[in-house]
Amino acid sequence: MEVAGLDSDGKEFKNAEEMWREKIGEGDQQKKTEWYQQGVGYWEGIEASVDGVLGGFGHVNDADIKGSEAFLQILLSDCFGADLRNRHLVALDCGSGIGRVTKNLLLRYFNEVDLVEPVSHFLEAARESLTPENGTVSDLHKVANFYCLPLQEFTPEAGRYDVIWVQWCIGHLADDDFISFFKHAMASLKPGGFFILKENIARSGFVLDEEDRSITRSDLYFKQLFNRCGLHLYKSKDQRGFPQNLFAVKMYALTIGMPKKNSRTRKVYSHKPAIIK
Ligand SMILES: C[S@@+](CC[C@H](N)C(=O)[O-])C[C@H]1O[C@@H](n2cnc3c(N)ncnc32)[C@H](O)[C@@H]1O
């Protein structure tokens, strides 16, 4: 990534490679492990609440879920179309925190959802709130597995998922782990399955947050990483309705190759005048 970036102390790096060399070293496993421990350590000190996992911006939850739902509906229809009703839909919520996305969105569309999250008190809060007793899950829409792991150490089960949801957590992964996570996770998608990545976007290059050890990448930076993963960028959409002082947020739908068009969404475009039948 040949574009300059900044850290939260205002220090400039001429490119991402220079920043990663300084922060995690080159092949220095101990330095990298410390980087990841500090990231998780930050979240271990945060309250297990919507406001906590949204960095004090709990009020954006409704707009976030609304934007995600509209995007997900388009993708489900494009990728599964008429098959949708017959599919037993399974999703993975990555860096799930307290299960905010699972509870407010994924469980309404998927029969099973798995959560992967490295901070145990977040995952425990998710386990307590996603129960039949409080009406969030049922026999047809339930959480199947809670994995307490960081993404760089998680290899999802092959061929299990229709959708892998990655929101506001991939900034914790260094580029090499980002790539190996997606490469492994590609094998865990069912045929026709896809990723949704929803993230803050830097105006250019990257911005490194020293407090929680995360990096906000630009749209171009993400696109270069998608290429290196061998992922196809099928669609993207900007999140609307967030306060102006926050980073812009984008949703990316990523597939392995071009999805097959299904009969329900196929349109025939003609450049000639034609009778409407
Ligand atoms: C901003 S919160 C977002 C939580 C959730 N995705 C949501 O949208 O409500 C960031 C989450 O990333 C998790 N996280 C930190 N390091 C991680 C890592 N290496 N792998 C996966 N998740 C990580 C944190 O514990 C926290 O739950």
From TrEMBL:
GO terms for molecular function: N-terminal protein N-methyltransferase activity. SUPFAM superfamilies: S-adenosyl-L-methionine-dependent methyltransferases. S-adenosyl-L-methionine binds at G95, R100, L151, Q152, Q167. Its EC number is 2.1.1.244. It is an enzyme of class 2 (transferase). One of its GO terms (biological process) is methylation. GO terms for cellular component: cytoplasm. Keywords: Methyltransferase, S-adenosyl-L-methionine, Transferase. It catalyses: N-terminal L-seryl-L-prolyl-L-lysyl-[protein] + 3 S-adenosyl-L-methionine = N-terminal N,N,N-trimethyl-L-seryl-L-prolyl-L-lysyl-[protein] + 3 S-adenosyl-L-homocysteine + 3 H(+); N-terminal L-alanyl-L-prolyl-L-lysyl-[protein] + 3 S-adenosyl-L-methionine = N-terminal N,N,N-trimethyl-L-alanyl-L-prolyl-L-lysyl-[protein] + 3 S-adenosyl-L-homocysteine + 3 H(+); N-terminal L-prolyl-L-prolyl-L-lysyl-[protein] + 2 S-adenosyl-L-methionine = N-terminal N,N-dimethyl-L-prolyl-L-prolyl-L-lysyl-[protein] + 2 S-adenosyl-L-homocysteine + 2 H(+). Belongs to the methyltransferase superfamily. NTM1 family. Alpha-N-methyltransferase that methylates the N-terminus of target proteins containing the N-terminal motif [Ala/Pro/Ser]-Pro-Lys when the initiator Met is cleaved. Specifically catalyzes mono-, di- or tri-methylation of exposed alpha-amino group of Ala or Ser residue in the [Ala/Ser]-Pro-Lys motif and mono- or di-methylation of Pro in the Pro-Pro-Lys motif. This is Alpha N-terminal protein methyltransferase 1. It comes from Protea cynaroides.
